[in-house]
Amino acid sequence: MFFDALLNREVSEIEDEIRRLLNIYGGNSSFTQYAHSLLDFLAAKRYRAKNLQTLPDLPQPRRHWQLPFEMRVALGIFAKEGRPVPPEWAVRWYECLSNQASAYRLCREQFVELFKHMYTELHGEGILLARTSTTLTVLHHTASPTFGFGNLVSAELDLPDVSAGIRADDAIRWIGSECNSCLSPYGRFINSHPDKAKSIEAACLLPFSVWPVDSRRHVLEQKIAMESDGGCKVTALQDLFPSLEDRSSVSKKAYARLSTELDSVGMGIEPDVRVGGRVPASDQPIALFLADRSSSNATASGEYATAEVLVHLAGAIAAAARDFDQAEKNVILDHVNTAFPLAQAERARLAARLRVYRVLPPSTKGLKKKIESLQQATRETICDLLIHISLAAGTVGSEGVRALETLFTLLGVDKSTLYSRLHKTQTRSPETKLPVADAPDATDTRKGLGQIRFDMDKVAVLRAESEKIAAVLNQVFEEPVVSGEPETPAADEHEETMEASSLGLDAEHVSLLRVLLQRPQWAKSEIEQICHDRNLMVDGAIEQINEAFFDRFDCAALEGDDPIDVNYELLAKEIA
Length: 576
Prior knowledge:
Blueprint: H1 2-25, H2 29-46, H3 69-81, H4 87-95, H5 102-106, H6 108-123, E1 135-141, E2 152-160, H7 170-192, H8 200-204, H9 213-228, E3 232-236, H10 252-263, E4 267-270, E5 285-290, H11 302-321, H12 326-339, H13 344-359, H14 368-372, H15 376-390, H16 398-411, H17 418-426, H18 456-476, H19 494-499, H20 507-516, E6 521-522, H21 524-533, H22 538-553, E7 558-559, E8 564-566, H23 568-575
Antiparallel strand pairs: 1-2, 3-5, 4-5, 6-8, 7-8
């Protein structure tokens, strides 16, 4: 007994010395091989573990051409007892292989967590190892052949040697390779920006399974809530990562990765750069919505591109006209859902985008190229829809009209037609209702938004004013009928008709007057924009029109500085 204790103490001292020398000369591959081989042989000579109950703690990671003795013993015991290899032992198995991935060295903590997650996803409780017929044997080649017992010693255990199987570690290497692919962007980022390891940018580059715990919990809670109350939630990008202090904006690459990771848990995000969306600032609103994991959220159909432009413009006009409420949202969604053969995922995405627009109205920047691809008939249809949206909750104010003028110009549609379209839509019969979406917004508690109703008293006033204006215009722009020609001039003769008006104004000023007579009052900035489109100076144009009216009616047509009033008393007098 004393001899065994003395021997064990001496063996421990030898092992300690070998490890000390490894710390010094570990860079020498030959020395490292002999040293590890001797350590394994010494461990095998006194090893007593025969089952899982006597299995020691996880061995220290060691990269070598052969698995460490302790790891080979543990795998042998799992195979012998027919028990699956647990995730923590699978990770250590990978760590002891000789070709560890670069991501492991750059971000070991996240690598280990992701490895365990993927291992469990693929293998449940763990891999079941085949019990080989080869017995676990540890061989040690001495560095010098001068030892009396030769230069080869061995120790054999009553356990199967799993490492002798046919590529037993293939599954482990494959998971390691997948983890490396997933974590490489994150590893490179924190290697280049070590001060941003706790930033939203870095977190967006991580697979969802290794996000910060509170972030994963928040997203999954949002998903559960959406499943019961409408399928969409508006939040802010920074709210997805509440524990991170660095909340600076993220790059397009990181945001695209975030979108992909949300796909993996059955959720979509708007805006989404993969389908043409912008990258939001970290404090700007985003919308999370339920999405089918089996369908791709990173692609869009050709019809979606047109519908997207429509929703973008519709969101801009709805927000400009007044508070973007449920009425406008219903009109937009109903038109999109009936006019375009979109997939359900695309419809859900556009509905989510509208939720964002209600919080943060969209800009028209960047739409020019998308609009250029649309046919003129499509643009005209969009213009009609924009007017319906503007009137969804009543009449249109000056801000709404200005917004419509801007969008008509952006769409390449003559904005002088805007006012006749507005008039036509406003004066529809009380029984006629615009279509609305079937389901109201679950988060909107306001009542009476299920149907769109017009203020018919206001419509009646507008109709009367329009009739007066129409009568005067018929007189002002009246052209003598030439024998043998139709009374109504053809479309290509329109400019010649206006030039021949009894006011003595040229075509540009006649066109301007037609527009101004559609409303009783204008802001000067509005008239400046209209004149700019016609290459007219606003003060000179107003003066020329007023001179023509003084010559004809002995009264000005346009009065005031800002706003500028249209002289409706004059018009009423002329038709009285």
